[in-house]
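This follows on from our talk about sequence and fold. I would like you to pick a protein and set down its sequence and fold. Go ahead and set the record down below:
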Amino acid sequence: MNITEQEKHIVSLFRKLPSEESQTKIVKAWCQTGRDVTNPQTNVSIDFYEESLTTIIERVGELKIKYEAYIALKELLINQFNNGNSYSDIMVTLYPDGNYEFKYWYDEERIYKQEYDVGMLRSKDFPHAMAKALVFYHLEDIKFRRKYNRIIMTFEVKEGEPFVDLYLINGRKQILPVYDAEKIEKYGDIISENTFNVKTWLKEHYENTNHGILKDIWKPWNKIVVSVPPSGYLNQLEDIHYYLDELELEKEFFLERY
């Protein structure tokens, strides 16, 4: 399907999505994507506006149609990319008489702001997300039943490689492994998958804050120690500790990020 045919197909889907009232007005569909539309993880958003672009029209229609429109838009943008045209935004104007117009452009400023906002949100949330995932999902997956006062999660990056260590402190202040040796064989696949995912997220957090989009506002670090209570909810002042080469960073460093 060439670009012209793709545009016609998208218009046919779009005309099924806005409210019936919008069929008598000029409607603009603003479609936005990220920096690399060829990445399977890159999404495409679709918002319908009245002609002035000041009011969003409530989107209705079958979920199947919305999904088809999403897929068609991504395929169109990838087709454009493969033809040497890199676009992040499309404005489709739908006229009541059946005519339509496509406008394409690349919005570096919007993309950077979105990447910055997402990077900041994920980085601020990293210790909290790991703690809640451990308590509410990972330990449940392996039928974890042992009572504990705290679980200590250590995240460290050494020579670019992520390392994760977990141990618990029980009611008698004994330090014990989170995963029982006798249960590791039974739950080995689950534990391995969880550990792999945590390392991936740790590497992303480290790269964003030390070398990526947040490097100018985030102090360098290479180790985080998180003390997780049974509730899974952290106290930002007491439970999160950032380090650089074993020297703990001041609390204000990460507290000002919240």
Remarks:
- The first strand starts at residue 27 and ends at 33.
